[in-house]
Amino acid sequence: AGDSRAKVYDFEVIGVEVLPDDVIDDEWEGRVHCRTLLRHGQRHHFVLNSEQMDAAAAAYGQSETQRKVTRLEKERQRRYHFLNATAARPPAPPLTPTEREVKWEESRRWLRDLDADPSAFYGSGGFVVGQGYIPKAAALAYGRVVAEASKLFEGAPGSDTYTDGVKLFCLRDALIFAPVQEGLPYGAEIKRRCLLFLDGGLQELYDTVLVRRTARQPQTYSAADCEQLLRDEVAKRRKGGDVRGMVDVLERSL
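User: That's the sequence. What structure does it adopt?
Assistant: Structure tokens below.
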């Protein structure tokens, strides 16, 4: 058995000895000349036969596979700790099928009461959707959200049930991908919203995470502000030597 404390060195092949075509030797095992790869210090030269070379290649392949597994495991642990950080909001307690059906019935009634008129439904400019990409932690849950929302497309177009489906279709991504509060893990928060959606918590999402666009109000200026803007514009034209521009500014102010 080998010593587990033995040092391991990477090496490169610098030459291979082969027999001439007219020489036959059944006991010939081949000779591979190798050299260790060291950044510092003296390199060592050594010779391996074909069997030893095969064993070295197999050992290298096994160690490379182990390194990949180790990197993958570290990445999984990093993601786990990230998605389960203490800053994440705790998910809602699981519901029984009966409780979930009751919640969905309440959500359908709430959805029916929403004004279907686009100007009222979208408010001033519509809804804000944040980054909009689906994190791996929430990919499965979001797929179930899409499937659950599509169930509301019932009846003929124009009917109340079909209109409810259209409303939920327009609200779905606004409820799930609304901007995430700073400090919360993005993946964990999106997954929490998906689970709440699947439990029928549409109104809770609407009241707590939905963000509407705000229309920009026209800026108003006082008389003093207008006078200062005029002075600044004239000074800018004068500094650039634009006499005609100064005259135009003064004429527009009259």
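Residues 223-252 form one domain.
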